[in-house]
Amino acid sequence: MADIVSSSASSQVTGSSSALSTSALASEQGKTSIADTVVAKIAGIAAREVSGVHALGGGTARAVGALRSRIPGGSTNHSQGVTVEVGERQAAVDVQLVAEYGVSIADLAAGIRRNVIGSIEGMTGLQVTEVNIEVQDVYVPSEDNDNDQDDSAPRVQ
Fold first, then answer.
1. Whole-model pTM above 0.85?
2. d(CA 84, CA 67)
3. What pLDDT digit, counting tens, does each position of 99-110 carry?
């Protein structure tokens, strides 16, 4: 965050207004800064909207998220599985996810990129330089169904 402040301060000291006029977040009336957590939350919600995404985050993050959602009054962490770097005019996003079985991972990644970039750029005015996607697992629905059926049916008569 110190780099962001120092770069805008140096452009104001030298009298250069071209850096300020190129961003929708800065004008002669003031500067708007957007926290990393805001961009991460926007990216997380946008990624979850894409069909074929089962969950965001690695195994540990999903386990903590499941515990957190069961606590009364607990809230969903929309930025789970998302890390971002936010500069003065640009943002870079990393997404970790679990894909649903049968979905084309290449098409899924393209859809996530398109949705994340559109949401961040539309809501914040920041230019998204990259969206890196790491598929950590594939969700197979039959695994959950088999376990549920085994528990309810008697094994012997």
1. no
2. 24
3. 999 999 999 999
Q: Give the mean model confidence (pLDDT) for residues 55-76.
A: 66
Size (the chain), residues = 157
Q: With contact defined as beta carbons under 8 Å apart, do 78 and 44 qualify? A: yes
The reply to whether 38 falls in a domain is yes
Q: Which amino acid is at 55?
A: A
Residue 125 token pair: 């005015």
Q: Is 143 exposed, middle or buried (0-12, 13-18, 19+ CB in 10 A)?
A: exposed
Range of the domain at 16: 1-31
Q: Encoding tokens for residue 29? A: 């009336």
Mean pLDDT of 12-23: 43
* CB of 88 closer than 8 Å to CB of 8: yes
Residue type, 117: I
Q: Are residues 104 and 127 in the same domain?
A: yes
AA letter at 95 = V
- Dihedral, CA of residue 86, residue 53, residue 152 and residue 76, to nearest 10: 30
Rounded mean pLDDT of 9-25?
46
Give the pLDDT of residue 147. Answer: 52
